[in-house]
């Protein structure tokens, strides 16, 4: 089932550019990192799940890029652009070979099952 996204025709023409450009820089930065790196973790400071995902990758000997955007006390609007872009509501956001695989729990499940290595191929 595809994720519901408001069609552009249902956004008034006067605000389409504003919607399209809302924190576009953070989305472009993450998108570029995902294209350049096999594994990317997008996180935020003070979040224990972001640390958990990175530790799991380190324990598996898997190199990864890490992008951190603020913490619980700031930068939430910029992080919200990433949530809207991916449809994933929490941090971290873990990408493997350009595909969003979820957060720390989903990453740990992939590592435990051996499916993570398959995704890297």
Radius of gyration: 16 Å
**Level-2 CATH architecture:** 3-Layer(aba) Sandwich
Q: How many domains, as an integer? A: 1
Give the CATH superfamily: Glutaredoxin
Strand order of the largest sheet: 2-1-3-4
Helix/strand order: HHEHEHEEHH
CATH class: Alpha Beta
In percent, how helical is the residue content? 40-55%
Flag low-confidence runs: none
Alpha plus pi helix count: 6
Mean residue pLDDT:
97
Strand content: 5-15%
The biggest beta sheet reads: 4 strands, mixed
Give the total of beta strands: 4
CATH topology: Glutaredoxin
Distance from first to last alpha carbon = 26 Å
Task: Name the structural class.
Answer: alpha+beta
What would you call the shape? globular
Task: Please describe the structure with a list of short key phrases separated by commas or semicolons.
121 residues, alpha+beta, Glutaredoxin, 6 helices, 14% strand, globular
Protein topology:
Elements lengths: L15 H6 L2 H13 L2 E5 L4 H12 L5 E4 L7 H11 L6 E4 L2 E4 L1 H10 L1 H6 L1
Parallel strand pairs: 1-2
Antiparallel strand pairs: 1-3, 3-4
Can you describe this structure?
It comes from Hydrogenophaga crassostreae. This protein is of the alpha+beta class and 121 residues long. The protein has helices at 16-21, 24-36, 48-59, 76-86, 104-113, 115-120, and strands at 39-43, 65-68, 93-96, 99-102. It has one domain: Glutaredoxin, CATH 3.40.30.10. The radius of gyration is 16 Å and the shape is globular.
């Amino acid at each position: 089932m595809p994720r519901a996204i408001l069609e552009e025709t249902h956004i008034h023409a006067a605000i389409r550019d504003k919607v399209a450009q809302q924190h576009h820089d953070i989305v472009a930065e993450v998108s570029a990192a995902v294209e350049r790196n096999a594994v990317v973790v997008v996180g935020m400071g003070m979040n224990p799940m972001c640390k958990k995902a990175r530790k799991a990758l380190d324990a598996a000997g898997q190199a990864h890029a890490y992008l951190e955007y603020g913490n619980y006390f700031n930068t939430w609007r910029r992080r919200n652009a990433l949530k809207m872009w991916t449809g994933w509501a929490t941090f971290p956001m873990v990408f493997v070979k350009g595909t969003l695989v979820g957060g720390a729990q989903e990453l740990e499940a992939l590592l435990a099952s051996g499916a993570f290595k398959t995704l890297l191929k």
